Amino acid sequence: MTRTFRTWIDLTWDKEGITWLVEEKRSSTFTKFTGTVVHVPSSNGGETSNTVHAFAHYVHWYTNGQLVMADLQGNIKAQISNNGKDFLVLFDPMTHTVAGNSGCGDHGEAGIKGFVNDHKCNEVCELMELSGLQDNEEDS
Fold this sequence. Notes:
Elements: E1 7-11, E2 18-22, E3 31-32, H1 46-62, E4 67-70, E5 73-77, E6 87-91, E7 94-97, H2 108-118, H3 123-127, H4 136-139
Antiparallel strand pairs: 1-2, 3-5, 4-7, 5-6
């Protein structure tokens, strides 16, 4: 029996609100779907890649262009989920926000514009009825 170890550890040293997320060890093999500032699908594409890129498109749409997910990478878990299918675990994502304050890798509006320029809708975007992307300047 495989046991998954996930827990929140709340440490309050001198600073209040420090929280750590501990996860099980990941496989050393993974697929990189997007980079920090490059959002072009890899040449191998496929359904998984299309789904991850459509997820990034959905996040952009859902936040009205205020946030994009970047540096998306993960691996297919060989463990069986509740519905009997393998699942993809994305880890170590970055975000670009209009305010540019979500972390050290947040490239702000330049990061969002890069996503808008790089993203090409695919079959999954079409199935989700996601329309073409526009950057914030064009929306105003």
